[in-house]
Amino acid sequence: MANVSGGTAMKNIKYVVYKEDKYFVSQCLNVDVSSFGESIDEAISSLKEAVSLYFENESDNSAYQVIGETLLGEDVIHA
Question: What pTM was estimated for this model as a whole?
Answer without folding.
Answer: 0.81
